[in-house]
């Protein structure tokens, strides 16, 4: 298993956002987190690369293992965690630098000793962007279209040579054509990476993911994992009535 989560609970100050979440996320598969707004999907995603550490009032209980190593252990460097577990955000967020410098940024910061030109080309190729930008690498990343910017952000994540890529609603700001390109790219990347995606779009979860987790906040429990399993099973024969109600559009 790439990631093992055991009884994970999280609070923002006095407000609980996750309650006893346990799940095992397999390597080199796409796992989708679905559920209504405010059910803890993005919070859970940010626990996996310790992004929540950056919020001063956060308190976490439980365990989160990456290839058997406790990510919240006392001797773990959160910066190294974020290098191995990359993140692509909801809105494309290229740096105000050239396309080349966007991709090379992380490698430079981490003291990369290899051939930078090769790394940039390879990362852009893997993000299915090289053919579109190879003659304009000095152009600002901000001059690209929204879909291209998101693929640039994926290239930037890949250049750090991660093992896991987290995507927080990576297509919500994109048009349908750009969305399909990102979905195709996920299916290509999953041959080499473990991908965990938060999505509001159930059709997207059904199209791209191998496993799906359905999360929910109700009057009793905040940020709970209701059901988790192979995507096809969860969408065709859900075990929990609440999953069935959400998928069929009866609530959420």
Automatic annotation (TrEMBL):
Limits of the ABC transporter domain: 3-247
Pfam families: ABC_tran
CDD domains xref list: ABC_PstB_phosphate_transporter
Keyword flag Kinase: no
PROSITE patterns cross-referenced by the UniProt entry: ABC_TRANSPORTER_1, ABC_TRANSPORTER_2
MF terms in GO: ATP binding
InterPro entries with a match to the protein in the record: AAA+_ATPase (IPR003593), ABC_transporter-like_ATP-bd (IPR003439), ABC_transporter-like_CS (IPR017871), P-loop_NTPase (IPR027417), PstB-like (IPR005670)
Coiled-coil boundaries: none
Top-level taxon of the source organism: Bacteria
Keywords assigned: ATP-binding, Nucleotide-binding, Transport
UniProt cross-references to Gene3D superfamilies, sorted A to Z: P-loop containing nucleotide triphosphate hydrolases (3.40.50.300)
Descriptive protein name: Phosphate ABC transporter ATP-binding protein PstB
């Amino acid at each position: 298993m790439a990631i093992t989560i055991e009884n994970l609970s999280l609070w923002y100050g006095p407000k609980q956002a996750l309650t006893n979440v346990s799940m095992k996320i397999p390597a080199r598969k796409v796992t989708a987190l679905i559920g209504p707004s405010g059910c803890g999907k993005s919070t859970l995603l940010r626990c996996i690369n310790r992004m929540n550490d950056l919020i001063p009032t956060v308190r976490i209980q439980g365990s989160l293992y990456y290839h058997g190593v406790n990510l919240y252990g006392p001797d773990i460097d959160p910066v190294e965690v974020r290098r191995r577990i990359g993140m692509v955000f909801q809105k494309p967020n290229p740096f105000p630098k050239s396309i080349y410098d966007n991709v090379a940024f992380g490698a430079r910061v981490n003291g990369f000793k290899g051939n930078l030109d090769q790394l940039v080309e390879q990362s852009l190729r893997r993000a299915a962007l090289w053919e579109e930008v190879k003659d304009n690498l000095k152009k600002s990343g901000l001059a690209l279209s929204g879909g291209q910017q998101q693929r640039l952000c994926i290239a930037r994540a890949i250049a750090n040579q991660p093992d896991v890529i987290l995507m927080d609603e990576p297509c919500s700001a994109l048009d349908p054509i750009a969305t399909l390109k990102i979905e195709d790219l996920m299916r290509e990347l999953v041959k080499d990476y473990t991908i965990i995606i938060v999505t509001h779009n159930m059709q997207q979860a059904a199209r791209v993911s191998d496993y799906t987790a359905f999360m929910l906040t109700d009057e009793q429990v905040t940020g709970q994992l209701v059901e988790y399993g192979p995507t096809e099973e969860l969408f065709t024969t859900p075990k929990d009535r609440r999953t069935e109600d959400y998928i069929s559009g009866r609530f959420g």
